[in-house]
Amino acid sequence: MADRSEPRRRGRPRGAKSGDTKARILDAATAEFSEHGYEATSMRAIARRAGVDPSLVHHYFDDKQGLVAEVVSVPLRPDRVVQEALEAPIDELGERLVRAVLGAWDSGPVRPAAIAALRSAVGQGPVARMLREFLRREIMHRIASALGPAEDAELRAELAASQLVGVIMVRYVLAFEPVASIDVEELVRRVGPAVQWHLTGRPGTLDTVASQANNSTHDE
Amino acid sequence: MADRSEPRRRGRPRGAKSGDTKARILDAATAEFSEHGYEATSMRAIARRAGVDPSLVHHYFDDKQGLVAEVVSVPLRPDRVVQEALEAPIDELGERLVRAVLGAWDSGPVRPAAIAALRSAVGQGPVARMLREFLRREIMHRIASALGPAEDAELRAELAASQLVGVIMVRYVLAFEPVASIDVEELVRRVGPAVQWHLTGRPGTLDTVASQANNSTHDE
After folding, report:
1. CA A153, CA B175: separation in Å to the nearest integer?
2. Contact yes or no for B193 and A211 at CB 8 A
3. B119/A121 touch (CB, cutoff 8 Å), yes or no
4. pLDDT at B214
5. Nearest to B178 among A154, A191, A193 (CB)
6. At A178, which helix (H) or strand (E)?
7. Contact at 8 Å (CB) between A167 and A174?
8. Which of B7, B27, B115, B142 is buried most, with the most CB atoms less than 10 Å from its CB?
9. pLDDT at B70 over 90
10. What is the pLDDT of residue A218?
11. Which PROSITE patterns does the annotation name (chains A, B) (predicted)?
12. Do the chains contact at A170 and B162, CB–CB below 8 Å?
C-alpha cells in the first residue's frame, strides 16, 4: 500500500452504498482472476477495474486469498485452515492436516460451496486456472515451507496434498460408503499416517523420519 | 444369455451395416446408463433399446464394463488394469497398483480421454452416476475382494483408491510440478507404500502387516 500510485482516497463506505461497492469489487476480482489467473492479478488491478481505491479492497477482503474465497463463495479460508495445522510439530503434521481439512469440509455451510469450487478447479472454465494457482501458491507452497530446506519438499508437499485431495474426492464428491459417513477421527487414524509418510517418510519403505525419532526416544 | 426372452436372432452383421449397428448399440447404452445408472442397466435392456439381439451387444462390446469404456471413449479397460495388478502378492499390491494405474494414464491415447472421463465423474451430468457406480463396482469392490475377509476391506480399498485418485488429480488434472513430470517409478517408490499401508497397515501407526511379515522373515 505504500507505493500506491493513485492518490484519491474515498474513506470507508457508508450505508447502502457499501454493498454496491463490495459487489463491484467482487465482479472486478472475478474478471481479473479469469483473465490473468491468481498469481498475475494484483489487488491494485482489481481496485482499478472496480474504480475504487485499493485501500477499499483491503478493507472489504483483507487480502488476495480472501478475495478468492469470496469469488468462489466458500465461507472459509483454506489457506488459514492449512496454516494453522502447519503450526504443529513436524511429526504430527499428517494427522493435524487431515483433521483440519476434513473438519472444515464437514461443516454444513462449507461443504456444498467447497464441492462446487472443487468441480470448478477440475473443470476447464476460467475459474479453474485461478483455483489451481491458488492451491499451488497458498496450499502446496505453505506445506512445502513447513518441511524446511529438504530438496524434495515441493514433491513431498504435493504428494501429501494428493492424499488429502483423494480423500476429499471419495468422501464428498464420489460419496462412496463407508468413507462418506465414517467419523473424521477414524479417518485421521487411517489417513494421517499416509500424509505423514509423504511429508517425512523414506521413499520405498514405510519408515518415517519422525517415527524413527520417536522410536529412538523410546529406546533410551 | 441362457434366459434370453426375445427369440429373434439376427446373426453377425456384415459390411457397412455393422458400423451402424455398433453406433446404435452405443447410443442405446449411453441413454440407458444415463437414465438408470451403471448397476441397474442390463445388456439385455441395451439390446432392447437398440432393437438388436443381446448376442450382438456381447459380440461388439464383450461385457458391460467394455460398454462403459466405449461410452466415455476411453481406449482402456480400467477394470482389467486393476485386476491384473491385483494378481500380485498382497504385500506388493501398493506398488503394483500405482505402476499399473499411472502407466495406463501416462499412455498417449488414454490420457486426454481419461481426464475427460474424470471430469464427467466429478461433475453433475448424467454420465457422472454411471461412472461412479462403475468405479465402485468394478474398482473398489475388486480391490476389497483382494484383501480377503477383513472386516474393514471396503474401507481400506476406498482409502487406497483415494490415494490413487489424488495422485491422478495432482499429476494429470491440476498438473502441478514436480508431480506432473516426475518418472512413474519414482511415484511408485513414493506413493506405493502409502497405498500399501491403506491396504494392510495398522491404523494409527506406520506398520503394515505385510512389512512385519517381511521383517520376521528377515529375522529368522
Report:
1. 17
2. no
3. no
4. 42
5. A154
6. none
7. no
8. B115
9. no
10. 39
11. HTH_TETR_2 (PS50977)
12. yes
H/E run at residue B173: none
The superfamily in CATH containing domain A18-71 is Homeodomain-like (1.10.10.60)
From B123, which residue of chain A is nearest by alpha-carbon distance? A119
Classify the phi-psi angles of B15: left when phi > 0, otherwise alpha if psi is within -120 to 50, otherwise beta.
left
Which of A22-31, A173-182, B111-120, B197-206 has the weakest average pLDDT? B197-206
Task: Return the bridge partners of B201, or none.
Answer: B208
pLDDT in tens, B16-53: 467 789 889 988 988 888 888 888 889 999 999 999 99
State how far residue B214 is from chain A, nearest Cα, in angstroms.
Answer: 12
Cβ-based burial of B11 (10 A; exposed 0-12, middle 13-18, buried ≥19): exposed
pTM for this predicted structure = 0.81
Q: What percent of chain B has pLDDT over 90?
A: 47
Comparing alpha-carbon positions, the chain A residue that sits nearest to B161 is A166
- Tell whether the model's pLDDT for residue A27 goes beyond 50: yes
Q: Which residues contact B188 (CB under 8 A, 6 or more apart)?
A: B95, B98, B99, B102
Sign of the dihedral defined by the CA atoms of residues A171, A177, A178, A182, in that order = positive
Each domain of chain B, given as residue ranges in start order, spans 18-71, 78-203
The answer to whether A179 contacts B132, with C-beta atoms less than 8 Å apart, is no
DSSP assignments along A49-104, one per residue = HHTS-HHHHHHHHSSHHHHHHHHTT-SS-HHHHHHHHTTS-GGGHHHHHHHHHHHH
Amino acid at B135: L
Q: Which residues contact B66 (CB under 8 A, 6 or more apart)?
A: B77
CB-nearest partner of A176 from B136, B204, B208: B136
- With CB atoms and an 8 Å threshold, state whether B158 touches A178: yes
| Least confident among A162-171, B17-26, B92-101 | B17-26
